[in-house]
Fold this protein.
Amino acid sequence: MARGPLAKAVEAAVAAGVDWVQIRERDLDGADLLALAEEIAAAARAGAAARGGDVQLLLNRRVDVALALPASGVHLGFDAVPPGAARELLGPEAILGAATHAAAEALAAAHLGLDYAQLAPLFAPRSKPAGRRPLGIHALREASRGTLPVLAQGGIDASNAAEVAAAGAAGVAVTGAILSADDPGRAAAALRGALDA
């Protein structure tokens, strides 16, 4: 099956060390989203196989599509099903996370039955116009004091990933740093190297 540019970029990025892929297309209906998710999942699995590793696939908000794929879990937002309902539908092994936009929100998410909180935007995003004021590294330090792992998002690339990890992030979520790069595989490898260092 021929792969589109997005799938090729995902395959290259996963082969270079990306270990989670979140599918975030909010404008697609269920059938179109599932078709895209199947293409991205196949590309991600091929990339993981090329490096002899594994990859986790998460759907943004759509528990139904996550079940149909099947995906590793769901990233919940303000307009998604509650975490308890998602857990009941997806089971105890599913990865559940939620978007947060303040340190206090990330800390409070520890009581929702989630596996991680995603804190954004840490810095000005690279993939879209800034809709919120960047929180800065101090917010990440505060959020990371809790018991729930925090994934940092927003304006992160290989140049600042080590600082983000040192501030307590359990991982990073990026879009523009990889998908806007001329060589997504090389960008992902640089980011992975910065995090691993």
The chain is about 40% helix and 15% strand. The domain at 1-90 is CATH 3.20.20.70 (TIM Barrel). The mean pLDDT is 94. The radius of gyration is 16 Å.
